[in-house]
Write a structure and sequence with these properties.
The complex is a heterodimer of chains A (329) and B (276). Chain A is an alpha/beta fold. Chain A has helices at 2-27, 40-51, 68-76, 89-97, 134-137, 156-168, 173-185, 194-202, 213-221, 245-248, 251-260, 263-271, 279-282, 307-316, 322-328, and strands at residues 29-36, 59-66, 83-85, 113-123, 144-145, 187-189, 208-212, 227-229, 233-243, 275-276, 294-296. Chain B has helices spanning 2-15, 19-47, 51-59, 62-95, 101-107, 110-113, 116-127, 141-166, 169-177, 182-211, 214-220, 230-239, 243-271. Classes of the chains: A alpha/beta (329), B mainly alpha (276).
């Protein structure tokens, strides 16, 4: 009798485990976060902070990180997602077109943008080539590294920063395009993504790396010893976040999205090198960054920038885009 | 229970050559279709979804053509180089004995196991601008060749090795005892026996090189018309919302690899015609 009861013991434990597990499962919600790779460190801290709030109790997360365009295509093809955090608006537009994200996703105080950054120049220690302005990048003998805007959606920020900076200095549209041609003559490597561009620069190639401020800060943290120059004119990078239609069904997902704009979460974004979008956090001394003389956005109509949709078509269309000619010489 | 299962298994084994052969063939072909043929057909289908004109237009874009030429050029070079080095490595591993041979034999397959993006990163650090050996081939065509040599190393070695092991050494000894020089023995006895295996290894290495992405993307520099290979060009087309263009160039790569594999298959068939 005793032997029998003992042999049943593991089964009993297993059964109890299943019951407890099932209870826990019914009481909790699992949300899917699909994001681009750069904010992974930040979300690694933001998610536990959210779980520590009353709204976030018993909420667990499935997280997926990858290149922004790849992530958008995966969600468009059926990867389950409640929250999408991508590097630029056109990737959200892909999901709006597919009916996965509602078209009013950016109707909030922050226009759907959760983090900001700017395009900067990363230079070698001591800035030996004395690179301070956009004109310096196009000088002969300067090697520029920038990710390929055709394989990296995020790299398109760099191109539009270069173009807009010319317009902000009073140059005409055709002069700005001529500048892009001169600039890309100095580009000796076009890595696939911003992270690979950082690796290429770290490997010793190039005099200046055109990248995002948060990537420059990340590189410094990871021991790529460099300094970065904030040009007088640059573009404001804005990274969107949105709920999908399935996410909108979960009050927890809505609460998480709201939490992303809380001062707690915005500080954590700030710690990983982004510029917080929340004014009260951005103005605190710890997260106060130098402001360029002229900071424009992708919607600065006076500079000929009429939003991503027009820019994507005019500059990055795979056959007729300006950049096809600029990069191909 | 157990006995009847064993009986049915042995019965199944007995009929495998006849009725069971049909089943086995069905499973094999069904599996092959599911894993290979259906996805490839879908690719061909999507490459033509906007008509043959668009297909042709996509394939003949100057940038696509230039990437294709570069891809084929480096792949041929790498495959040819592999024919020499792969055979030499297989020879040393089979015919020589030296301390650490077992270790080297295991190392051969590592390029298969290493994620190719890691391979690219390591090659960049070792043979890039900060090379500890002072060898900088990064961001030029030589860098692409180096990365491809790394990832294709195992093919020829592993194709030639078993044939070399099976090769009857009495043939060589007989030839030598009849006064043949070592070079003649190699040329007239060893080489003809190895050739089919070398060629199939070369074909696999070529096909792999044509489609390789991960190890090349970092070290090549990706400058259009200079160092951009087709796989990187294809990635750019996908990111630029042009899946048709990506599929069209992929189909061309596939057709070329298929032609090479078929040609080598046909050659082997012709070579072994007397054995059948």
């Amino acid at each position: 009798m005793r032997r029998i009861s003992l042999s049943f013991l593991p089964l009993l434990v297993l059964a109890a485990g299943i019951v407890v597990g099932a209870r826990a499962a019914t009481a909790s919600t699992t949300l899917s976060l699909v994001a681009y790779s750069t904010p992974k460190d930040a979300y690694g801290k933001i998610i536990p902070a959210f779980q520590a709030t009353t709204a976030g109790k018993n909420v667990s997360f499935n997280q997926s990180y990858g290149a922004s365009g790849d992530q958008a295509r995966a969600v468009a093809a059926g990867l389950s997602a409640d929250i999408v955090a991508l590097s630029l608006e056109p990737d959200v537009s892909t999901l709006v077109k597919k009916g996965i994200v509602p078209s009013n996703w950016n109707q909030n105080r922050y226009h759907g943008m959760v983090t900001d950054s700017v395009v900067v120049f990363v230079v070698r220690d001591g800035n030996p080539k004395k690179i301070h302005t956009w004109a310096d990048l196009a000088k002969s003998g300067v090697q520029v590294i920038t990710p390929n805007p055709f394989t990296s959606g995020g790299a398109r920020w760099n191109v539009m920063a270069a173009y807009g900076a010319q317009r902000a200095q009073g140059k005409s549209d055709s002069q700005a395009i001529a500048y892009l041609k001169r600039l890309f003559k100095n580009v000796s490597v076009l890595p696939k993504s911003a992270r690979e561009a950082t690796q290429v620069f770290a490997s010793g190639k190039g005099d200046v790396l055109l990248t995002y401020e948060n990537e420059a800060i990340y590189a410094n943290k990871k021991g790529v010893h460099t300094e970065y120059v904030l040009p007088k004119q640059t573009i404001l990078i804005e990274n969107p976040v949105a709920l999908t239609k399935s996410g909108l069904k979960h009050p927890e997902a809505k609460a998480f999205l709201k939490f992303l704009w809380s001062s707690k979460a915005q500080k954590l974004f700030g710690d990983s090198g982004y510029r917080p979008v929340l004014k009260s956090v951005a103005s605190s001394s710890k997260y106060r960054y130098k402001q360029p003389k002229s900071l424009f956005t992708i919607n600065s109509k006076a500079l000929g920038l009429r939003g991503w949709k027009s820019v994507q078509y005019r500059f990055f269309d795979h056959s007729s885009g300006i950049m096809v000619k600029v990069i191909g010489h | 229970m157990a006995t009847s299962a064993a009986v049915s298994v042995s019965r199944a084994g007995a009929v495998l050559g006849r009725a069971g052969g049909g089943l086995a063939r069905g499973i094999a072909i069904g599996y092959l279709s599911l894993i290979v043929l259906v996805p490839l057909s879908a690719l061909v289908w999507s490459s033509r979804s906007e008509g043959m004109d668009t297909f042709w237009q996509e394939v003949t874009k100057p940038q696509a053509l230039s990437a294709l030429k570069l891809t084929l050029g480096v792949s041929f070079l790498v495959a040819a180089f592999n024919a020499l080095t792969g055979t030499a490595i297989a020879w040393v591993l089979v015919r020589d004995s030296f301390p650490g041979k077992g270790f080297f034999n295991s190392v051969i397959d590592l390029p298969f196991a290493l994620p190719t993006i890691v391979a690219g990163l390591v090659l960049l650090e070792l043979y890039g601008p900060n090379s500890p050996f002072g060898v900088d081939v990064a961001f030029q065509r030589a860098g692409i060749v180096l990365a491809l040599l790394f990832v294709t190393l195992p093919f020829v070695v592993r194709a030639v090795q078993p044939v070399l092991l099976e090769l009857d050494r009495e043939m060589e000894e007989a030839a030598e005892s009849l006064g043949a020089r070592r070079l003649a023995v190699f040329r007239r006895i060893v080489f003809p026996n190895l050739l089919p295996a070398v060629l199939s290894g070369v074909a696999l290495a070529f096909a792999r090189a044509v489609g390789e992405f991960g190890s090349v993307v970092l070290i090549s520099g990706n400058i259009p018309f200079k160092t951009e290979v087709s796989s990187v060009y294809i990635a750019g087309q996908i990111e630029s919302d042009n899946p048709t263009g990506a599929a069209a160039v992929s189909v061309v790569l596939l057709l070329i690899s298929l032609a090479v594999l078929l040609a080598i298959g046909a050659f082997r068939h012709w070579r072994t015609r007397h054995d059948r």
